Structure formats: C-alpha cells, structure tokens
Amino acid sequence: MNKPFLLSLIAPFFLFLSAELIDFFPGSIYYLLPLANALVIFTVYGMVKNSSFYGRLDFLIFPLVFLNGSIASLLILNSRFLAQGLIFFSAGMIWYYIKSVYFFHHKPIFYKTFQIRNISVYGNFLSIFFFSSALFGIRSFLNWPVWGIILVLTFLFLLVIYQLNWAHKIPLADSGVHILADSLILVEIAWSLSFLPLRFYILGLLLSAAYYIITGLTRHYLLGTLAAKNVKAYLGVGLFSVIMILLSARWI
After folding, report:
1. Which of 104, 91, 74 is nearest to 9 (CA)?
2. Are 243 and 168 members of one domain?
3. Could you list the mean pLDDT of each consecutive 10-residue stretch along the chain, which spans 252 residues?
4. Which of 12, 33, 155, 185 is the most buried (most CB within 10 A)?
5. Are 58 and 163 a contacting pair, CB within 8 Å?
6. Are the beta carbons of 221 and 179 closer than 8 angstroms?
7. What's the burial of 156, exposed, middle or buried (CB within 10 Å: 0-12/13-18/19+)?
8. Based on the number of CB atoms within 10 Å of its own CB, is 96 exposed (0-12), middle (13-18) or buried (19 or more)?
9. What is the pLDDT of residue 200?
C-alpha cells in the first residue's frame, strides 16, 4: 500500500477523532486543532505532484478552511446530536476531498471530471456558513467588536473566492478584480447583517446565500457562460432561500 493512499485513510480518521475530543473536551482545541491542520497540510501537500510550491498551496485552501470552519461551528452548537452529525459530515467531506486529490494525481482513471470543482462550489458554501455563523455567535456570546469579525470575514472571502476560481481554472489575471469586488460586496452585506436582531445561524445562512448568488453569477461571467437563465436561476433560488430563512427565523 503506497504512502499517499495510506495517508488518505489515516488523515480523515484522525480528524474525526480530534473533532470528537474537542467536542467533549473543548480545552483540547489548543493542541488538537494545530495538529489537525498540520496533518491536512502534510497529507495534501505530499499528494500533489508536478506542481510548484504555490500550486500545492492551492490544493490546501479548501480542506483547511473547511476544517477550521467546522470546528468553529462545533464550538457554538448546544445540541449533542447536531454536533455528532457535523463531525461525521465534516470528516466525510474532507475524506472525499483528499480522495479526489489522490485520484487526480495518482489514479486519474478513477477521477471523475469536475470532482474537485464541484466540491469547491458546495464545500465553500458550507465553509462560509460555518465560519460566519461561528463568528456571529462569538460576537453574541463574547461581545466581540464588529470590526474584528469583518476583518476575519474579509480574509475568508478573498481566500475562498480565489480557491473557487482556481478550481474552475480561471486565471488570476482575469479574476483578480472580481475577487476583490465580490469580497467587498460580501463584507458590506456582513456588516449590515451584524446589526440585525437575528440568531447567529440565521445570519450565517443569509450571508451564505449572498455568497452563493454573487460568486455564481461572477463565475458564469468569467467563464463566458452567463445567460438570462443563469441570472434568473440564481436570483430565484437566492430570493426563495432568503424568504424561507426570514420566515423561519426568530426575531429577538
């Protein structure tokens, strides 16, 4: 059994155990989370072949953001059932991504077309939800200043949108301005949402919906596939989601 394949099995299992320990012993996050991040870096970085240093880093963005977003969201959950569901789902998602990277570089015959691209689209949406919900929750619990949350979200938006465009093979020279513009718009939305009297996970869902619409339309534009049907689809899904979220929200 080769080393990359073995790591693709060991890493998700260790991440699962780490998340379980953090859930039961929150204080362990100070040493388990750095270890979990180091394992992801070691595993994914070692799997990528024939790429420069920066090319290898591109493959690391999604699993690291998703891992830390999941753990951050785990800390604010007060339901053991939901926490266990999140742990199983997150470990499975990271395993699927690592397996996709392994197939892409070592067993291309098993790699499904657009596999990493599809993971990036939906996984980054979840990452935004996990991180933003956790940050809004932390602000509510610890009375953090809004500017601190906005600073973290700004970096997160830049990183995630860059990774999304990279997964779709859109050159940075073409997408750079759009990454900045989309991030600025989302930061403005996040700033406005922070003043609404809504629960933190509702705020996270609203921000995630905005992210999905904005990045989806921009992506189609950059790929040259933007059409009226795409605009209607994204706006329709987005508007429906926002209405359903607000109707089911508890205004405090």
Report:
1. 91
2. yes
3. 76 93 91 94 85 81 96 88 93 94 88 88 94 88 83 95 94 93 95 86 91 92 86 82 72 50
4. 12
5. yes
6. no
7. buried
8. middle
9. 87
Q: Which of 96, 112, 128 is at the close of a domain?
A: 112
Give the amino acid at 252: I
pLDDT tens digits for range 177-208: 999 999 999 999 999 998 888 888 889 999 99
Residues 125, 243: one domain? yes
Q: Is 95 helix (H, G, I), strand (E, B) or coil?
A: helix
- Rounded to whole angstroms, the Cα distance separating 47 from 60 reads 11
Residue 108 near residue 115, CB atoms below 8 Å: no
**pLDDT number for residue 144:** 80
User: What is the tally of structural domains in the chain?
Assistant: 2
| Interior/surface letters 235-244, b for 16+ CB within 10 angstroms, e for the rest | eeebeebeee
> What's the whole-model pTM score?
0.91
- Distance, CA of 50 to CA of 56 (rounded, Å): 9
Round to whole Å and give the CA distance between 128 and 208: 6
Instruction: Show which of 85, 112, 139 is a domain's final residue.
Output: 112
Query: Where in the sequence is the domain holding 89, given as residue range(s)?
Result: 1-112
Residue with tokens 């926490």: 83
Per-residue tokens: 109: 């015959």
